[in-house]
Amino acid sequence: MTDKEIIKALELCIEGGDGSCTICPYANTPNCYDESGKDILDLIKRQRAEIERLLQKTQQPQIGTTKELKVIKLVETEYEKAKNLEYIRNPLAYALHKVWKMVDAEKGRWEE
Fold it and tell me: What pLDDT band is residue 25 in, cutting at 50, 70 and 90?
């Protein structure tokens, strides 16, 4: 059954009415309640897994370009180096400043 057919069958079962069983996608299925119940549960599980996958995807940082990734890697590297320098009070600020100077000195390489 397709997802649309499963939903249609559930709607027909809930709403009831004369002749609803005859137009149900499960009309010729023995034990239609059991079979439709299994399919409904499977549909819910698949949709829940898709929602969780999409939530995880939206929670990940969306960094688009290779240049951005290179700059982030440079900042991380410089930050790790700066943490070990005794005279640096703010390693992150030092790393950001150093990378900014590197990028500024090589503008042509970083521009699109």
Answer: very high
Q: How many domains does the chain have?
A: 2
For residue 67 the two structure tokens come to 């240049």
Task: Please give the residue range of the domain that contains residue 94.
Answer: 66-110
Give per-residue pLDDT as tens, 60-105. 666 566 777 788 888 999 999 999 988 888 989 989 998 888 888 8
- Which two three-digit tokens encode residue 69? 């990734």
Residue 7 shares a structural domain with residue 36: yes
How would residue 18 be classed by pLDDT, with cut points 50, 70 and 90?
confident
> CB–CB of 95/82 below 8 Å?
yes
> Any idea what DSSP says for residue 56?
H
Query: Looking at the structure, do residues 38 and 82 belong to the same domain, yes or no?
Result: no
Q: Are 94 and 78 in contact (CB under 8 A)?
A: yes
Helices 32-59 and 3-15, packing angle to 10 deg:
120
